[in-house]
Amino acid sequence: MNTRAGFVALIGEPNAGKSTLLNRMVGAKVSIVTHKVQTTRTRIRGVALAGEAQIVFVDTPGLFKPRRRLDRAMVAAAWGGAADADVIVLLIEAHRGLTEGVKRILDGLPAVAKGRKVALAINKIDRTEAPKLLKLTQEINERFEFSKTFMISAEKGHGVEALRDWLAMELPESPWLYPEDQLADLPMRMIAAEMTREKLTLRLHQELPYQLTVETEMWTEKPDGSARIDQLIYVSRPGHKGIILGNKGETIKAIGQSARAEIEEFLGRKVHLFLQVKVRENWLDEAERYSEMGLDFKDGNA
Q1: Res 41: pLDDT
Q2: What is the pLDDT of residue 38?
Q3: How many domains, in total, are found in the chain?
Q4: pTM to 2 decimal places
Q5: Angle CA 261–264–267, to nearest 5
Q6: Strands 271-279, 4-12: parallel, antiparallel or unpaired by DSSP?
Q7: Which of 170, 197, 214 is the last residue of a domain?
Q8: Do residues 146 and 119 touch, judged by C-beta distance below 8 A?
Q9: Among residues 170, 203, 235, which one ends one of the domains?
Q10: Are residues 151 and 226 in the same domain?
């Protein structure tokens, strides 16, 4: 039997459930999932297998109205991910329906679709009644001609298998692009940094939503099979450093323990994690920080 392989871009507004769907498809946690919007900053590729097909998912940052350089670079990365893919999946939240953000995405779709198959996946269907779902499906399909529409719950897994099977059949015939046991093509250093950033985002809630970034500065393999990971947390103001450290360093200690446990589980071995907080007032305007996040600094230009 011939094998198939190709790239599928998941696009949508921030918080539509793209990362949850990616992790559900891949069967492992490769993308940061929080209740915060705009948490996915880079195009994370997760690899899923469906029969003879290898589906490489590009989890793009959420598409939203950009205000800062970082926002503009993220939006450019999202549309770039869609333009590079073999198939595009637009994910929208059932209960939020046809928002202004979704309308903007639908307006931008024809320019990147260009003959590609585009599927509509209506997520979180358990939050909406059937008549509303049908009305929403009709409304959106009138604005753009989707190849197929799927009703799913990424969190609970409903409808996900049907979407995966359809995607597998739509990919071009090709040898597999990655080894069978590879889940993601992000370097481990970046995945580890993303895991720590997720813990920071969850712990700090609204205090420091997007004013921080995490970089893995050093990764040292130890003779006993464990790894020492040194990470830097960059913040843009001195006051932010105190928030992250917390009273007597309690906050950063709790974040470190939580991140270390998750990194250990992902790697399947012992990890020694060391976190340091640095104030860099202009990190949002440094090209180096963008390349660490897999974004193009130039895309952030107004």
Answers
A1: 45
A2: 42
A3: 2
A4: 0.59
A5: 150
A6: unpaired
A7: 170
A8: yes
A9: 170
A10: no
Same domain for 111 and 17: yes
Does residue 241 share a domain with residue 93?
Answer: no
219: alpha, beta or left? (left if phi > 0; alpha if psi -120 to 50): beta
**Structure-token pair, residue 282:** 């202009």
**Residue at 66 is within a domain:** yes
User: In terms of domains, do 290 and 230 share one?
Assistant: yes
CB hemisphere CA count around 258 (13 angstroms): 16
**93: domain range?**
4-170
Using the structure block, give the residue that is written with the tokens 């939240």. 93
Q: Report whether 43 contacts 3 (CB < 8 A).
A: no
Angstrom distance (rounded) from CA 137 to CA 125? 12
Residues 221 and 156 both lie in one domain: no
Looking up tokens 């040292």, which residue turns up?
Answer: 220
Residues 132 and 280 in one domain: no
Q: Can you give the CATH number for the domain in which 69 is found?
A: 3.40.50.300
Residues counted in the chain: 302
Which position has the higher pLDDT, 277 or 289? 277
Counts for the chain of helices (H) and strands (E), in that order: 9, 9
Please give the structure tokens belonging to residue 143. Answer: 């604005």
Report d(CA 241, CA 235) in Å as an integer.
7
pLDDT in tens, 110-150: 877 777 888 999 998 888 888 888 998 899 889 888 999 99
Q: Can you tell me which residue has the tokens 């059937």? A: 130
**CB 98 within 8 Å of CB 68:** no
